[in-house]
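Dear colleague,

As promised, here are the two records you asked about, laid out in our usual form so they can be pasted straight into your sheet.

NAME FIELD: protein one
SEQUENCE, THEN STRUCTURE:
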Amino acid sequence: MKTDADATRGSGTVENRRMLPAYEQIKRYVVDRIADGTWKPGDTIPSETELVKEFGVSRMTASRALRELTAERVLTRVQGSGTFVAPRHYESTILEVRNIADEITARGHRHSARVLRLETSEDAEAIASLDLTAGPVFHSCIVHCEEGTPIQYEDRYTNPHLFPDYLQQDFTSETPNHYMVRLAPIQRAEFRIDAQKPNATIRKQLEMEIGEPCLLVSRRTWVGDGVATSVQLWHPSSRFHLVGKV
C-alpha cells in the first residue's frame, strides 16, 4: 500500500516526530493518519514490510510499533488478513472521562476557553506524576467558560513522549481532553475529588469570592502502559456539580 508520508516529510510535525525513537515515529505516523481521516475504522494499514521500506527500519522495529498500537486498541490485527484501524467504539473508555466542552454543549450553551499557559515544565512533582524519570513535560493552564462565565480552571501536565505536538495545538478551538482522546484511546484512569479552597490566582481566574470553596477533581489517565496526563480541574462550588449513574 502506498502511504503519503513523503508528502509530509517537510512539515514541522514530521520534524518533531523524527526526534522520537524509530518505533515511536511509526506509531505517531499511524495515529496522525487516523486522526486526519486518511485511514478510517476498518481500513487496512500498511504491512510491516511496507513500513520497513517506507521508514528504513528493521522488521523488529515495525513489528513493535504495530504491536504496541494493537495493545493500545488503536489497531486490530487479524492473522492472515492484515492490520486494520480499530472500530471507533475503542475511543470510549470504561471510565467516563467527560469533555467539559461537550458537557456545556449538551446543556445548549456556548463553550469558550482562555489559554493562560502552554509551556514546557521541569516541575519535579509533575514529572513524577507522569511516571517519568526526567523532564521536560508539557504544561497547560486553561479557563473554560460557559456562556462567558468561568466554570473550570484546568491545570494539566502532559507526557511529551505520547503527545509530542501538544504545545502546537490551539486549545481555544479544541480542548486538551478532546485532542488527546482523538489521538490515543484512554485505557484507564484514576480520580480523586476534594473540596478545597483555591489559591489567589485560581480564585481570580474563576471570578470567585474570597473564602468560596472549589470542587477539585484530580485525575491521571493512561495510554497503554504510560501515564498520558495528570490534571487538576478546579470548579467553583456555587456554579458546578458532578452527577453520574451506574
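NAME FIELD: protein two
SEQUENCE, THEN STRUCTURE:
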Amino acid sequence: MRIVHLANHCQLIGNGIVNMMVDLACSQADAGHDVVVATSGGRYEPLLAAHGVRHVVLEQSRDPWRTPAMVLGFNRLLRDVDPDVVHAHMMTGAIIARFGTWRRRYALVTTVHNEFQKSASLMRYGDRVVAVTQAVEKAMIGRGIRADRICTVLNGTVGTPRRAQASTADPLRLSRPSITTVAGMYERKGIQDLLRAFASLRATHPDATLYLVGDGPDRADMEALAAELGLEGWAHFAGFDTNPVRWLAETDVFVLASHKEPGGLVLSEAREAGCAIVATDVDGNPEMLDRGEAGWLVPARAPDALAAAIGSLLGDAALRADYAARARRNLDKFTVQRVANDYMAVYATALDVFRQTHGRRPRTALRSS
C-alpha cells in the first residue's frame, strides 16, 4: 500500500502527535509498505530514512494566504506518490487532503489527537475518523461525527523506533524520594496543581524532590509559582529531554496532573518503565491506566487530592511497589505494532467507504484487478 502521512512538522520536541505519526510510519515501512511523511521538516528525518520512509517537504499552515502554495505542493505530492491512503494528523492536512484536489483517488483517514481544540471538528472530513481513546470518540460523536464513521485506536509506545533516536546521556541519579512529571509547560497540563500539591507535601515529606521535565510557553509562570511557594531547590525545572525514559526509570512516583489529556503517550511510557503512577481522572487517562488498575486516579484541579495520593505512595514502599507492578501488566495493547495493525484495518475500511461514497474503485483496487 502507498501511504502518505500529513503533519505540520516532524520536530523532535516531545509533541505526542508527531511521535505517534513517526512510530506508525516507521512500523508501516518496516512491514513493506511504501510510506511518505510530508511535513515542514524537523529532526526526525534521519530516523524516518533509516526505516525506509521518505520525507517530503510540504509546508502546512493555518495562514489563509499560504493556501495556494499548500494546494500546489500537495498536488505535486499526489502526482509523485499516487497514494492509496492519505492519513492527516493535524487540521491543516485534513483540509488540504479533502479539498485540495479535484478528483480524489485516495481514501482519507484523519486522527483526532487533541479533541479539546475547536479545530478538531474539522477532522470529520476523513472517510474514516480515528480517535486515540474511547473518551475522544465519545466526545467527537457529541460534536456531530456519525458513530459509524469513527473508531478508536488506542495510543501505545512499547517498542517505539524512536528509542534509537533518544539521548545517550548518562543515567540519572535523582534525589530520593523523587516525584517526576514529563509534560509540556502548558496550563492544561496541571503543573500549577502539582506545584501546590508538592508544597503541601513538604510538611510530611521534607526530603522529597520534584522534577519537571518539559518545556513550553507557560514555563516562566510555573517557575514564578514555584518560587512563590518556596520550592526553590526542591522543584527542578529540567527542560525538554529527548530521552524522558531515563527520568521515568529513576523516579519513585510519576505524576500526570493534566486538566485535558486525550490519550497521553507518556502514560504508556511510564507503565513500560514500571512507575508508580498518579494521574488525573480526565479524558483518556482512565483508559491508559486500565480504569485505575494500573495507576492512581485523582480529580483534576484538586491539589489536595493529588498531594494525598502522592504522599500515600511515598510513605508506603509496599504500596508503591504494588502500583509499579500493576503498571507493567497488560502492556501488549500498548505496543507500536498493535497500533500499526489496527491502523491497517482502518485503512481497509476507509478504502471501502471511499468506493461506496464515490461510486468508483480507489487506486488499490485498480492496481490489484
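A couple of things worth noting about protein two: Residues 203 and 311 are 10 Å apart (CA to CA). The chain is about 40% helix and 15% strand.

Best,
R.
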